[in-house]
Amino acid sequence: SHLAMAAQPSHRARNEKPMILSFLSELRSDGKCMSDIVRNAGVSVAANGSSKPALASSAPRKKKRKRSGKANGSATTKLKANSKIIKENGRKKKKRRRQSEPLGVPSAKSEVRKAGKSDVKAKRKRRAGDGKIVETKVEAKAECTKTRPEFPRMKRSQSYLATCGRGMSGIVAGEIRKRYGIQPEANDGRVFFDTDIVPRLLGELRSVERLIALVVRHPGEKIFGDSPATLSQSLATICAKRGKKPWDRALKCQRKCASKLTKPGKKEKKENSEYRPPNFTVNAKCSGYYKQVGLKGREAGKAIGEALRDLLGWKPDPPPFDFATYEGVEIYVHANDRELLAGLPLFREQGGLLAMNGRSLTFPGLRPTTAWAIGDLAKIEPGDVVVDPTAGMGTLLIEAARDQIKKSSLSSKKHETHQNDPKNKKKTAKKSQAKKKSKRKRESAQVRNGAASGSLGGITFIGGDCNPTNVFNARTNIQGAGLRGKVEMKHWDVIKTGLPMDNGHVDKIIADLPFGHRHSDKEYVKVLYPEVLSESERVLRIGGTAVFLTSEISLLLSLIEERKSAEGKAVWKINQRLPLKLGYIHADVIIIRKAIDDPSTR
């Protein structure tokens, strides 16, 4: 056994080798016999009795003979049987471990697997006798406890580009993060993200104007050319370099987003089994250096279309007068100093995201994406009273009400599953009685203030305007959106009569204040803004929020800073200021909170 230990390359064997060698040197026997004895131990002994460790034995090794087929077969059957026994033993151990672990407390490894991090090293949680977690050590790059929302997914992920107004990229990124659990990259007016979620579900985004399945994203520094011809040729080669597969994958995403009416049935697919290449046109835009050189979008689109025709085999069409009415495949291309972007827009057949979600109004006013963002920044909660003192076409109230309807439908589904549980029946019965009492009190208060017809799941939406035509148009928009009886529109004049509500009755105020460009002048704005701010201060409760959209931010900020109580404390507290660009007009969204109540305003 000592000789075998000397042959092993372990730490213990290395320590015992000199002892064994000294023992062998004391033995007085023939050198040949000693070498025969010690050969298996990896030690060579000289004739004079001195011994040295040998790296390899000097005797030639015999070649192993090949076994017959029967022997090999028996060996393989033994190996299979042994592997089965090992697997069964592993399963038994897992069952014992599950039985020993307390229910409802998953291990660290299971949490890592759920999060999709199987390669992360994790230590099991050490538990006390009562089942409480004592220590948790999970080494992971991301938080493993946060699981992604469950959505139907594709086999491969796709890159997307979400376009929005300037200043809205942070709001769009926040919505994508909340809805889908994705960490996007936000630039000025553009948001990039990768996901394997089915593209039709991405149409639920409320702050996005256009969604594009991105194929090409090339840095602008690596595009060379001095003339329009060389620049257009370099753009065409970059778009064709990506190959055929990414373009085909983007086309599949576009077709998955198409409506059911446009999708071919099984019979049509069998009859039209021959492949028909789609018609396409290139919608190219050039800005920055390309515009200075003199490269136009039509020239760049023509060169890119020829390159993609040779690569994909699709049929190119000349650019139409209106891309919204074009029935073929539209290829979006935008070249600027920063980068080159190319892809296929989704939801084109439904008229875009706004038309698909039914957000196009009969009398359009503010952009629906901007209106949704203002309502989202207000953080409307159940039971709130929301007022728009300068409603105009009612876009702000319509978008806020639609958003609340969607949220209430999702919460009702969760409530039904919770209520069906027999353990929770008694608790839900008590809660429902308390809710009924509070609802009666709220409704009686609303009747006194003339706002009972605008209630929506405990939320009241009231708007008004001084122009009778605007009130009529807003009512038609509300009726067209299916919100009749849920959003109330009134005729009032803030300057002459003020808001017809009690003091401290309103929770949230959202308003698109007149800019003084189209429907009013600068003098009217200077008179209107102080009245709106003073009425908002009177009507809002302490801690209530007001969200204003205005281009005259300097005037509004000066009025907010001037308003102080008799004790010298500021009445308003500015929470956030967000700069936007609406077309050619620079505007700001400002969120203020009522900090204190001043009795002199009553």
UniProtKB/TrEMBL annotation:
Region (Disordered) location: 47-130, 407-451
UniProt feature, compositional bias: Low complexity: 49-59
Sequence ranges assigned to domain Ribosomal RNA large subunit methyltransferase K/L-like methyltransferase in this UniProt record: 365-571
Biased composition (Basic and acidic residues): 110-121, 413-423
Pfam families listed in its UniProt record: UPF0020 (PF01170)
GO terms under biological process: tRNA methylation
Highest taxon of the lineage: Eukaryota
InterPro entries: RlmKL-like_Mtase, SAM-dependent_MTases_sf
One MF term in the entry's GO annotations: tRNA (guanine) methyltransferase activity
Bias kind Basic residues: ranges: 60-69, 424-442
One GO cellular component, as annotated: tRNA methyltransferase complex
Protein name as it appears in the record: Ribosomal RNA large subunit methyltransferase K/L-like methyltransferase domain-containing protein
Organism: Amorphochlora amoebiformis
